[in-house]
Design brief:
Blueprint lengths: L2 H23 L13 H11 L3 H16 L8 H27 L4 H8 L6 H5 L3 H12 L9 H9 L8 H19 L4 H20 L5 H34 L2
Length: about 250
């Protein structure tokens, strides 16, 4: 494999996200930055929704069809492809779940609500059971008007009551993007396809900042982990494909 591919994919995905972390050091406050009832905030929400259960299923199916189209079929090819993809996503999910319980970082919107006097403090909030957190959050948000915090964001916050670090959406988006971008580059698919997939993954990361769900360090660490998992999975499939091609040529 061309070594440039192993450098190009991480740069496309990680560098734009790293800018967010640098900006935070210069006191760029990503939340609350947008008017939450305006179109840019809704666009950020739609980016986030692209990784709900239905969205991620559609994305994985569509990208898999594009990646495998025209690839010379080999025995066990789809099984190996599925295994490599699921191993990458599974590693990302397990890492995210374990890290959240270890670091126990409060989400930005929880800190913000505490500063607004709507919650006592983040420690008290996270000491509650999940169902109690949802109810407490619902009560705290009830006094905000639709112009201050739209209902769709209130409901989204109530669904996102776990800890902040790392970002599950970011690590999933980066795992998916790096996995398929590396395969597309290997197959010499359109550069626009690779660029578009990279823009989507970076957009998901930034949507988490703008909606108050994560800190810059969350999405940066998640991006690094996601690219690691995604590229490892893709490289494993490419290695298997090359080995099978060599075996066929020697027969």
């Amino acid at each position: 494999m061309n070594p440039r591919l192993l450098l190009l994919v991480p740069l496309l995905l990680i560098l734009p996200v790293a800018i967010a972390s640098l900006g935070y050091q210069w006191h760029w406050h990503w939340f609350p930055l947008l008017d939450l009832d305006e179109a840019p905030a809704l666009l950020a929400y739609l980016m986030t929704l692209s990784l709900d259960k239905i969205g991620i299923a559609i994305i994985l199916c569509a990208l898999s069809v594009v990646a495998l189209y025209g690839w010379r079929p080999r025995s066990g090819q789809y099984v190996v492809f599925f295994f490599c993809l699921m191993a990458a996503l599974g590693s990302a999910f397990v890492t995210k779940s374990v890290a959240k319980q270890y670091f126990k970082e409060p989400r930005p919107y929880v800190i913000w609500l505490a500063e607004q006097g709507r919650l006592t403090d983040s420690k008290s909030f996270y000491a509650l059971l999940p169902l109690t957190r949802e109810q407490w959050l619902s009560d705290s948000l009830s006094d905000f008007s639709e112009e201050e915090i739209p209902n769709w964001l209130k409901l989204h916050w109530q669904d996102e009551i776990s800890y902040s670090f790392p970002s599950g959406h970011s690590i999933a988006a980066m795992t998916i993007a790096s996995f398929y971008c590396l395969l597309f580059a290997y197959r010499r698919r359109s550069r626009w396809l690779i660029a578009g997939l990279s823009v989507w993954a970076v957009g998901v990361c930034y949507s988490r900042l703008l909606l108050g769900l994560h800190w810059p360090i969350d999405i940066l660490a998640s991006s690094l982990l996601g690219v690691l998992f995604g590229m490892t999975g893709a490289y494993a499939f490419i290695y298997w494909d090359k080995r099978e091609l060599t075996a066929v040529s020697h027969k």
